[in-house]
Amino acid sequence: MFQYVRTRSFLIPLTLILLFSMLTAACGSPQPKLVDGKMNIVTSFYPLYDFASKIGGEHVNVINLVPAGVEPHDWSPKSRDMQNLSSSDLFLYLGAGFEGWVHDTLDSMKKDSRVTVVETSQGIQLLPGTEEEEHGHEDEHAKDEQAKDEHAHGSTDPHVWLSPVNAKQIALNIKEALVKVDSAHQADYEANFKRFADQLDELHNKYKTQLAQLPKKEIVVTHHSFGYLAKEYGLTQKALMGLSPDAEPTSKDIQQMMQFVKDNQVKYIFFEELVSDKLAKTLAKDAGVETLVLNPLEGLTEEQAKQGADYLSIMENNLNNLIKALQ
């Protein structure tokens, strides 16, 4: 396939080559490609890309479908994504209702595709997608509106990766998938997984020890992403919006949130970097409190990607901000 492209390129006029070069430069980084001689892995969003890269090491070429700076809820696969996916060795997706596009995409893949498909949330106990006491949607109309906002996620909360304990299970599922597809490098995959699992254990112990010492347990967030983290470490999550960051809070939601902030002496309202912070800042201003970032790790910003940030470093930053907010 690649030889064909190279041979044909000599027939392309110089002006077209120069035009293509300018367009490529204008678009930033080159598009990821499949690589000969390595296991080609396609992942549905950032944490899976990071985990697969760490566990696979030098033996894998990992392509993440969602680019840096893009919110996964706003993304759907393009034709080149389908080409990479159909020609890859392994496709890793989260499941749990997170990728609304995945089943139609898999159904539309070529029947002769050799890709192995793995749902990486297997083995994790899922939380319900809605919790009335955390959203204040008592009346039936509000429930209906919330259901519309959260249709892409179904009846479960998909944000499992924000618990380091769950992240370890996801990493285990990825390691087992790599071994299944490429048993020749099993020893390396096992060693890389052990190293990463130890780091996740250390992260979990930091969260458990340091959050337990803090006097406050209530966090206010804009997007209902942190249910697994809250459950793991005894926190109470109060979210303005549901599981989708595109959901709009009602006036009743905002009133109840203001009362919650006042009753619990909340000092900070958390917002995310890949969605607008306007709502969080407006609410914080009205309540006389400040804002902080709590990253749901659905993707990296372009700046974070350039700086080499990863799951572990961002979760460390999240812990530092939680400590600041809960003192």
Automatic annotation (TrEMBL):
Keyword entries, A-Z: Signal, Transport
Feature: compositional bias, Basic and acidic residues: 134-156
Signal peptide as annotated in the record: 1-25
The keyword Transport is assigned to this record: yes
One GO molecular-function entry: metal ion binding
Annotated region (Disordered), positions in chain: 122-160
GO terms of biological process kind: cell adhesion; metal ion transport
Domain of life: Bacteria
Pfam family for this entry, one: ZnuA
SUPFAM superfamilies membership: Helical backbone' metal receptor
DNA-binding in keyword set: no
CDD domains in the record: AdcA
Family named by the database record: Belongs to the bacterial solute-binding protein 9 family.
Protein name: ABC transporter substrate-binding protein
Lineage, uppermost ranks: Bacteria, Bacillati, Bacillota, Bacilli, Bacillales
